[in-house]
Amino acid sequence: MSGLRYVYAVCHPYESPLQRQLSGVAGAPPKRLTHHGLVAVVSTVPEHEFTEEALRANLEDLDWLTATARAHQQVIDALTAVTTPLPLRMATVFRDDSGVRSMIEAREEELRRVLDRLAGRVEWGVKVYVERPPESSAEAEGAARPAAKPVSGRDYLRRRRDQTRAHDDVWQRASEFSERLHGTLAAFAEDSRLHAPQNSALSGATGQNVLNAAYLVSRADSEEFVELVDREKDDVPGIRVELTGPWAAYSFAGEFAEDPGVES
């Protein structure tokens, strides 16, 4: 093969084939590269896009970054359906097959240790959001009617105080609920990670993120985990729970799934 070698993941040997029409980064189909009893899933990418200098520029290009991240994730999702991959960080690139083999040899013990730990397990994500507290019926009715006279400064301050108290109450309930939910889910899961809350302006999600957690769960226990999340959901006005997955265990892959980079 010519070009650079893009590595998506490392895994134990697997028998089930990937989707026939699956394409990876830059449109190339992923292939298996077996070495020392481990499989690196790779594809060929053009050197002019993935040299260290070119990659620094491309990572500033939102369209390029979005397309590359989507293609990378497609391959990881396909692998997750047939085996337990150890996903590598996006844009992990080597000069040739020998570079990939050298990486496997240099990190073989660590790769096997992480793969053994992740075997048969997937990641589930749980987020809790605080949404705008609902208006009372009286407030809604008042807002729908034209004001008979200007609102006094005292009335305005009182309304603002009441709105602030209502918002604070929702945040308090959301914090208590999130702490209780995380404790329950973490006790069920084999491992968990608490991530920083997401910025709603960047994520596009409605509401403010209070809990952003990942849970490592056995595939065999995943259905029970999903049911547990459903049972624990409180019907609390202004609080929303979002469950995503199952994913490859990015949050538990350690340094292998960190920020994008290039290996020579």
Automatic annotation (TrEMBL):
Biased composition range(s): Low complexity: 135-150
Show the Pfam families listed in the entry: GvpL_GvpF
Q: Which UniProt keywords apply?
A: Gas vesicle
Predominantly, its location class is other
Region of interest (Disordered), ranges: 133-155
Q: What protein family does this chain belong to?
A: Belongs to the gas vesicle GvpF/GvpL family.
User: What's the name of the protein?
Assistant: GvpL/GvpF family gas vesicle protein
Q: Which organism does this record belong to?
A: Streptomyces nigra
